[in-house]
Write a structure and sequence with these properties.
The strands form two sheets. This protein has a nine-stranded mixed beta sheet. It has a two-stranded antiparallel ribbon with strand order 5-6. 39% of the residues lie in helices and 19% in strands. It has one domain (3-254): Metal-dependent hydrolases (TIM Barrel, Alpha-Beta Barrel). By secondary structure, it is α/β, with parallel strands linked by helices. The protein starts with a strand and ends with a strand. Helix 9 (230-240) links the parallel strand 9 (213-217) and strand 10. The model has no long low-confidence stretch (mean pLDDT 97). The structure holds zinc ion (ZN) (2 copies). One zinc ion binds at residues 6, 8, 75, 219.
Amino acid sequence: MIFDTHMHTELSFDSSEQITKILEEAAVKNLGVITTEHKDLNYLEVGGFPIDFDVDEYFRLYEKYRSDTYLMGIELGLDRRYTDKIREIQEKYDFDIVIGSLHTMDGINLSSRKYFKSQNEKDFYRTYLRYAEEMVRDSSFIDALAHFDYPTRYSGFSELRYEAYEKELSALFKTMVREDVTLEINLKRPLIGEVYHSFRSIYKGYYENGGRYVTLASDAHVAEDIGRNFDEAIKLADDIGLEICYYKNRKRVLCDR
Ligand SMILES: [Zn+2]
Ligand SMILES: [Zn+2]
């Protein structure tokens, strides 16, 4: 069974979806699902608002639904000033998967269109990719690294290509392989046009540096979006030779299909 390893429900600030709707949709689509609610401890400081949820409540409310096909995870915003705190959180609770995200970079909100207006594209991407490598080293306890293309969605910059940032990306991928961190395929955007060419080059680069595993992630905030663009992602992974996996009890499991 294929698993969708990244989605949000009403416990995340930006979703009002119910877990029961997610489970109904998962059954219809014959998918395993993992909820990964948002926790970004630093977001208030970067000019945002608290992005948090009560993890005890999460387990209290959702544990009863847990099964072989519904697993429980978390999406943690990485920030070196909070590494100790997030390490504690992921150790304390019985998650199946811990996803690490770069929603911010050294106190900068990476979804701020205003910030990108003053940035040079090449300099930004180099800095961002080096930062991503540092964050994976710093928080190597994560299972998967989410949406490498997050800033691209808000910056208006060109889609990333492996060839254009080979030095930074090969360093990032080598660190991921060494620390056994999986590169997520985030499918919020359809794999067409420039996005497709970008993803193809990035995941090929990941493979060339020893990466063998990917997780599939709709990043759905409503039930109907779970499994979105999965057919295209499965084809991409197959073409490159990457294995599709999910995590259960913090251990990688290959999807059989
Ligand atoms: Zn995210
Ligand atoms: Zn997410």
